[in-house]
Predict the structure.
Amino acid sequence: MAGEVTVLVPSLLRQFTGDQAELRLSVDDADTTVAGLLDAIGGQFPVFDRRVRDETGALRRYVNIYVAGDDVRRGRGLATPVAAGQEVMVIQSIAGG
Amino acid sequence: MASNDAHPDGTTLLAVGTKKGLWLGTSTDRVRFDFTGPHFLMNEIPSIGIDTRNGSPRVLVGVRSEHWGPTVAHTDDLGATWDEPENGAITFPADTEAALERVWQILPDAAGRPGVVWAGCEPISVWKSTDGGEHFELNRGLWDHPHRSEWGAGFGGAAAHTVLPSPADPDTIHVAMSTGGVYRSLDGGSTWTPRNTGISAYFMPDPMPEFGQCVHKVARDPNTDTTLYAQNHHGVYRSDDNADTWVSIADGLPTDFGFTILTHPRRSGTAWVIPIKADGERIPPDGRLAVHRTDDGGATWTPSSAGLAEPDYNVVLRDAACVDTADPVGVYFGTRGGSVYASADEGATFSEVIAHLPDVLCVRAALL
């Protein structure tokens, strides 16, 4: 079903999304995935995409993505489907010293 | 050396890359520096290149966040603003199925090759830019090398940490990697052969293999480009035949372990090392930090600790030391304890120019 999803941008990456804390993207088919969302965002904000995924398309090790509150690594990774109305959160995990 | 209109004659830029950011300092006496920073707070800066070939200095830095990955940025106004190519200056081509982990080396080429900048990276790879470091191309000769599957990872990661294009011969390039040792190309980077004869790999079953050595740093003589110096994982060496063979020059040093080695920008035979006690005891010998200098190609060494803290139990990493091109030459280094020292007299005496930084990973200096 067509509609919008909201992607929440962590504060450290807002410099790469035109200072936007939320990105709203149209979802117009049932096959939309997290990877597809990142492709769409990356078309407009390529540096944001490079911070979240490496050049092989893999999610960076210490970046987490939640779809409707569920960690995609516990689901189908970047192939996790995203439906209209859902919220996608990008957040850094706890790492470093 | 060209001076820059924006800075008084004799201004030196000192760039300090640490585990949690970059500091940029300027000085007219190489004793007192005015620093800005941290730039890129909470990002490690393992590599810095200062390109003064176009009059206006460009500072290129390898940046790496534990969370957000590696990238390359540059500034043309000493850090007031930074630029990062949208699609990345260094990204692996899709067919390699590899991803950049860390940029270990950024080196502007000789003055006669404006725009050419080299990078050495993890995973083990060499890159060349012809547009001043905004976009780099992967060296396929080294990437597709048949030895690749046998190269190992040093503790810091598997990287080409040293790239040395010959100023005299554009076809000759040396690289050093951990672990793999020294490789040389005589055809501009199309093909590469290991050049480690005489360098020990005591940690392997065959202590003198063709490749697999853990060479930590290599530096080239300024006048005879076929003379090179190497600080190995235990072992200090010189080659007088373009790296075909290496001979030990460690006699006279308190220990043959260390990470960094520097050569003089104009005078043959002069080099500096900063010894560390041993692989299994990574502190300055007896907790006394000292810079050792040779003026005869490694036949004899003279230590200097004037101006250095004592005791100091911190090591100096492979790229955390450099020289400038002034006369007399400035020698700089930083420790994992966050102290940075500068010498305006070729390493005879040092001044601590900034302290209590995060671990210093890279130090570069240039006359603006």
